[in-house]
Amino acid sequence: MKKKLLSVLLTGAMAASMFVGCGTSTETTDTAPAAEGEATETAAPAEGAKVGVAMPTKDLQRWNQDGANMQKELEAAGYEVDLQYASNDVQTQVSQIENMINSGCNVLVIAAIEGSSLGEAMDMAAAQNIPVIAYDRLIMNSDAVSYYATFDNYKVGQVQGQYIIDQLDLENTSETFTMEITAGDPGDNNAGFFYNGAMDLLKPYIEKGTIEVKSGQVEFADVATPAWATETAQSRMENILSSKFANDDLNICLCSNDSTALGVENALAANYKGEYPIITGQDCDIENTKNMIAGKQSMSVFKDTRTLASQVVKMVGQILKGETVDVNDEKTYDNGTGVIPSFLCEPVFADKDNYKELLIDSGYYTEDQLQ
Ligand code: BGC
Fold it and tell me: Whole domain around residue 249: which residue ranges?
């Protein structure tokens, strides 16, 4: 694993904001906090530190929850928070991160719009020794990234793929089922993990002929959905339905997440007369959970954003205090500069039978929100 140097703990800006007039001198100390069991050298007061939180967009439901949870938990832990949304515009996100750095943020938590396009802002963070936690989506090709916190993305895809296998008993059937695939944003490193997790399980059935993809669109590049946009997924599925399923049933829609599943569900509602397919998703967005209850989406994968936020807040505190940072994966996520020490939270299968327990009993949604 690549060893990352964090020389963080009191940057000039933090020192200025915290100790002006206190007569306290500040030091910048290099520590390598990720290696397990290794003693860390520096302790810095975490209270009062400023944390920049860069989120991609308010348009997709989950990021609103992520941002709100992060803000609440960081403030409760005593930090000042600069939370920004970038309307899915990369340049806006770059400027927001630069502003966070200029305004004295001590740690940055970033859910990138495009993992490979934050170059300038990452260079600036690196030059000022500001630690960066990549939030949910890995930031690529930058050694400014100190840690990564996400859900087990490959497992999300496996849960979807295994669900399809089990529902149709693909192992034992002699039937052929039709399937169409809708994957995520090619600029989001997660999208390939979701696709591969599911397709590593399903491809053998395509090869055997148990699954037929009538559109012929199987490879990630052919099924990707830029920006995870519902409308794009919808219009692509409308084309496929009118050209390939005017007279035939579509049995399976493998959709990587809920925003793309929603597009597919909209296309089916407008254009499809056959028997309703199995549809997968991810996130348990409100609209999709409603569709699950109504039988229009078969399953989703619940990624409790409260769990991720708590984990990230813990990591922020550990970084600021010079403690060993809690990670549980040091092999999977190479961002092009080396493996980034990661914490992977557990994704959970959700459907109409367990959504109440997962989403309502746990206080994630109220019953009213799902009416
Ligand atoms: C997240 C998914 C989400 C997608 C679209 C991905 O990076 O991991 O949970 O559905 O972005 O927002």
Answer: 154-303+366-370
